Amino acid sequence: MKSIAATCILTLSAHSAIAEDWLEFRGPNGQGHTSADLPIEWSESKNIVWKVPVAGSGWSSPVVAGGVIYLTTSVGDGEGLKSAQSLRLIKLNAGDGKEIFNIELFQQRGGKGIRIHKKNSHASPTPILEGDRIYVHFGPHGTACVNTNGKVLWKKVLKYSPTHGNGGSPAVCGDKLIICCDGSDQQFVVGLNKHSGDIKWKRDRNMQASRGFSFCTPTIMTVNGKPQAICPGSGKVISYDPETGDEIWHVDYGQGYSVVPRPVIGDGVVYVCNGFADSRILAIDPTGKGDVTDTHIKWKLTRGVPMTPSLLLVGKQLYFVSDRGIAMSVDAQTGGKIWQERLGGSFSASPTYANGRIYFQSEKGITTVVQAGPNFEVLAKNKIANGKEKTFASFGIVDDAILLRSENHLYRIGE
Fold first, then answer.
1. Residue 16 in 3-state DSSP?
2. What average pLDDT does the chain have?
């Protein structure tokens, strides 16, 4: 029998080996890297392979396997974010963008009880593809497993009260689907049996932050041959044993809350953002046990910290862009600044690395392509829809093309 660590490692390796498969939020290993040779330039009249409308609204990213795209959306029965919602999964042909199926998984009641931020949607978590299964999450409104033919295999509802709506995506390790549930009323992390949806473990966060809500996606990291599920939340980041849910270590970071960026990992270090209030980037050595706040933080950075976009680690450099459009690169070992430049605009999508280039997408459909390395060099600036459609979703990748989700459309961008 394979150990859970071996299962996680083999799964991640298999995902990384297939360039055209983009199986979860931020792609292989959840790190925002692709081996694809993506286009550098595009516009509404250049390098658009296809553009199709997407009904409803959602800021989840598209996921891809075997020439097929899956995307979630939320279709309201009236105007405004407080209308009742049909929470749906769409399957499209990656070659031409044609819809294969569009199925409802959950219904969400409307009314005054719906609390959602104007920048959020009712379909923000990104699905996960694994073999012939798709794991779909809509926060407290429901989690489901669907096969590639559209048959629902199981459903599960995890009750908590999010502030500003749902946000974080699940992560898979071994036979567990791991989900952060950080609401205004309670904060916990749960490990579901991915085959049945049954709760195998549930751990209260025991947070002391002034505001408990957060929206983070777990990152799976193997340390000394054993997997860890690294789950930032309000007040602290906690590493859990994916098999049992037992805490391995934690770092307290005070009053940080509304944490969104997914952790990135490399060279035995995990890089975490701690959200609003006393905002910082923390570089953490994950080999400790228990409270490692005073012993395992390698460095901290307080300038230019992103609240929404995730970090991007390429070699020995850590790249990121603040929500207000300040891009930075720092030394991943020390946190020392390498360069800092203003891109312009506001940013929510996480950056992507491909073939020596970094893609920063703003909230108005403008993507700045930057050469990776010690010197800041803009290779291109590209715009869709004349900047008239919002673009909060992070890229998906198919073959050597970008899947860009705008407010009303899905684009396939390639040469």
1. helix
2. 92
Q: Where residue 16 falls among pLDDT bands split at 50, 70, 90?
A: very low
Tell me the residue type at 293. T
Spatial CA neighbour of 109 closest among 129, 84, 86: 84
The DSSP letter of residue 24 is: S
- Cα–Cα nearest to 30, from 194, 173, 235: 173
Kindly indicate whether the domain formed by 4-413 is annotated with CATH number 2.130.10.10. Answer: yes
Whether the CB-CB separation of 363 and 390 falls below 8 Å is answered with yes
pTM, two decimal places: 0.94
Q: Could you tell me whether strands 226-232 and 171-173 are parallel, antiparallel, or unpaired per DSSP bridges? A: unpaired
Residues 272-294: tens digit of each pLDDT: 999 998 899 999 999 999 999 99
* Residue ranges of domains in the chain: 4-413
User: Could you tell me if 171 and 180 are in contact, meaning their C-beta atoms sit under 8 angstroms apart?
Assistant: no
**β-sheet bridge partners, residue 252:** 236
d(CA 108, CA 106) in angstroms, rounded, equals: 7
CA angle 180, 145, 116 (to 5 degrees): 45
From the list 411, 414, 415, the residue with the least C-alpha distance to 61 is 411
Backbone angles phi, psi at 134, to 5 degrees: -125, 125
Residue among 231, 232, 234 nearest 213 (CA): 234
Rounded distance between C-alpha atoms, residue 357 and residue 22, angstroms: 18
The C-alpha atoms of residue 325 and residue 384 are separated, in whole angstroms, by 18
